[in-house]
Amino acid sequence: MAPRRGSGGGGGGGDGEGGSIGSASCPGAFKSEYATTISYFVAYCLFFLVALGTLIAMIKIKKKHPHSEKLLGWLFGVSLSFFLLGYALVIIATVVTECEITNMLNNGGLAVEIFFSLAEFLLLCLVLYGVNTELRKLVGSKPSFLNIICGVVLGIMFVLTAAYISFFSYNTISLVSSDQLISSQQKLAAAYYVLFLLSVFLGSVGIIISIVQIRSKEVNSAGLVGWIIVLIVSMNIWVLFILVIVAASMNGQYWGSPFMDSGVKEAFAYIIDGGQALSFIAILFIAKSYAFAQIPFGGDPQQQMYNNLTYPQPQQPVYNQVPVPQQQQYPQQQEYTSNNANYNNGNGTQGYYNNGPSMNG
């Protein structure tokens, strides 16, 4: 779970929200002083089901709304799958540990942390790059400058994500639990989430600017603005709450402070996991919006916007209705009558020449 960041280190860093039990059996699961709190286990199961339901909904939406592929591509699918795998692993680890089969919470904590770290980073990529890029296309601009900014920011975040995973892996595998290593891991986690929050804020500003421009251009944005607001609020909240936990752990107050009692920590866990789940759900509804159906894959958004405008179809000129001057019409009619008369008399076209003056006078 994400709240573990910065709250532990070394071999035990994989389980900062609760402990494992060493002597209880399944009938006594979750009753030991060091057992995982039942409310956390309920959260694991609840948000596993939410992630699974979101994944199923993604598949259905992509079939029904082909234009949703712009946001529900591999980035969305991989990020959501990593969250799903993380929840599945922590559920399995909790069950086998509480049933005293093996202490999998410590051993499996590394895999869980890796899955959640990668899932959070990919979710950031989806919001900062994916959503912003599609909204800029909807406005009618080519987001080349935006792509450069997003690329630089996401490059920095990727390096920090890799550094945190490496640091956490070293502390877990080496079974080292010195105060210095724990402190270094907490500082790295704090720096990571400060920049993570700034990146989310940057993406939120870009999204708001795009929405204002979309509404000013009277682009069809039905069902889009509301879910954009949900996405912005949920993303900022869950990152901010993780940062609060990391800051409290750096001051040694996460476990001992009255403010951070068990009820508050459990509430934080639900808010963080709920915010992440709501972010995915918001992107689902944003992707299916018919506003994005106006932009084809790889098409020129500005040209497509003009094509969508309705103009009156020009009437084709009817040349046959142009009046013919009488002085031209009469000789033609007379000539036709003469030819027709000769033809009817059996002379055919030869009669036309016979109507001319006689060479013999």
Automatic annotation (TrEMBL):
Region annotated Disordered, chain positions: 329-361
Residue ranges crossing the lipid bilayer per the database entry: 38-59, 71-96, 108-132, 144-170, 190-212, 224-247, 267-287
Keywords tagged on the record: Membrane, Transmembrane, Transmembrane helix
Name this protein carries in UniProt: Uncharacterized protein
Species assigned in the record: Zopfia rhizophila CBS 207.26
